[in-house]
């Protein structure tokens, strides 16, 4: 089935009290809009159309950063959901497949739910997503007769009997694109809000003798985000679900409630994740890796058997090979750490390649930035880098080489060589005692002067 996504993302989100458009507020390190796009992507759409309004340029940038093929249309006036969907018509003028309407501030619709809607569309002209609400509140109500959906009534326009209905409208709708826009053209604004409601298309379709049906999902999937408080609830809901899913898939979380996932975190079976670990975007951890407590990872790949932390930071571009070790207070950025290599203590390795079975001593820094350009450090296999070595890039250290502790290495080191680059130690007999006596006398004089 061919399908197009229409995602409504034009709202300002006044209750957010923010300069940022509502749909760009983040859950699990990604804008809400991206979550909606990611769910819709499971249907393998032919087209994705984002209806933007408030801060449209920022919304467009975020959408196209995630999917460069997404098309952006502008809703200049906020006249209701039917009016918003109508703005996508020009982009889908000749499209004859189905269209599904999603919402940029409703980030948790599951791909499986959208697939259920697509299956229902094979038997019905219009399909609406509904949910049984514990507290229906001011949601629109779905009025059904048997298995048929007859109409959707907005709360403001509902009778007491209709308000007693607990089957509520999520706003998500699927129909053939030409039919969708044809029905929208008939929608009026004679209602309590004076808006053009997308929900009216169900009644209009029925009046034509077309069929409409409702597919239901869990209420949690339809959570809309309108305030900072709801944003925090949504974040907690995402994290709880991600943790449960990880453990179901064979990951050990020692203290699940302390581990923070990003929207795209991938963990292999038999990974061990200790407390207070934060996964930023773009992290893949392979089977059997061990992430120790208080580590922060983003934009990196950790191979099987590798150990990270505690208190380690892996930044974008980091690639840890099998059985490598990154220890406490080590930061790695845009670097390949070879199989079995170790960076165990208090080091910064950036823009570097570290070969198989090399050992990087405590306090080592790859000095990769000259104030304008970044430069690379290449360390071969079975190399021993002595503690407190400064490797001033661009520089390379050959296989089986060694650097002396406290060295500043500014030139390439040949394979098998020992490089020492430090000042010669000079000793002045008795000078320390004389210096201490001088300093103590100065301190006494200063104290007496302050008292006077």
Automatic annotation (TrEMBL):
InterPro entries (alphabetical): Bifunctional_GlmU, GlmU-like, GlmU_C_LbH, Hexapep, MobA-like_NTP_Trfase, Nucleotide-diphossugar_trans, Trimer_LpxA-like_sf
Residues that hold acetyl-CoA according to the record: 362, 368-369, 387, 405, 422
Pathway this chain belongs to: Bacterial outer membrane biogenesis; LPS lipid A biosynthesis; Nucleotide-sugar biosynthesis; UDP-N-acetyl-alpha-D-glucosamine biosynthesis; N-acetyl-alpha-D-glucosamine 1-phosphate from alpha-D-glucosamine 6-phosphate (route II): step 2/2; Nucleotide-sugar biosynthesis; UDP-N-acetyl-alpha-D-glucosamine biosynthesis; UDP-N-acetyl-alpha-D-glucosamine from N-acetyl-alpha-D-glucosamine 1-phosphate: step 1/1
Cellular component GO terms, alphabetical: cytoplasm; membrane
Binding site for UDP-N-acetyl-alpha-D-glucosamine: 8-11, 22, 75, 80-81, 103-105, 140, 154, 169, 226, 315, 333, 348, 359
Localisation: Cytoplasm
Cofactor dependence: Mg(2+)
Region of interest: Pyrophosphorylase: 1-228
Pfam families for this protein: Hexapep (PF00132), NTP_transf_3 (PF12804)
Keywords, sorted A to Z: Acyltransferase, Cell shape, Cell wall biogenesis/degradation, Cytoplasm, Magnesium, Metal-binding, Multifunctional enzyme, Nucleotidyltransferase, Peptidoglycan synthesis, Repeat, Transferase
GO biological process: cell morphogenesis; cell wall organization; lipid A biosynthetic process; peptidoglycan biosynthetic process; regulation of cell shape; UDP-N-acetylglucosamine biosynthetic process
Enzyme class: transferase
MobA-like NTP transferase domain ranges (all copies): 6-132
Reaction catalyzed: N-acetyl-alpha-D-glucosamine 1-phosphate + UTP + H(+) = UDP-N-acetyl-alpha-D-glucosamine + diphosphate; alpha-D-glucosamine 1-phosphate + acetyl-CoA = N-acetyl-alpha-D-glucosamine 1-phosphate + CoA + H(+)
Annotated catalytic residues: 345 (proton acceptor)
CDD domains: GT2_GlmU_N_bac, LbH_GlmU_C
GO molecular function: glucosamine-1-phosphate N-acetyltransferase activity; magnesium ion binding; UDP-N-acetylglucosamine diphosphorylase activity
Family, as annotated: In the C-terminal section; belongs to the transferase hexapeptide repeat family. In the N-terminal section; belongs to the N-acetylglucosamine-1-phosphate uridyltransferase family.
NCBIfam families: glmU (TIGR01173), PRK14353.1 (NF010933)
Function: Catalyzes the last two sequential reactions in the de novo biosynthetic pathway for UDP-N-acetylglucosamine (UDP-GlcNAc). The C-terminal domain catalyzes the transfer of acetyl group from acetyl coenzyme A to glucosamine-1-phosphate (GlcN-1-P) to produce N-acetylglucosamine-1-phosphate (GlcNAc-1-P), which is converted into UDP-GlcNAc by the transfer of uridine 5-monophosphate (from uridine 5-triphosphate), a reaction catalyzed by the N-terminal domain.
SUBUNIT field: Homotrimer.
Protein name: Bifunctional protein GlmU
Organism of this sequence: Roseovarius tolerans
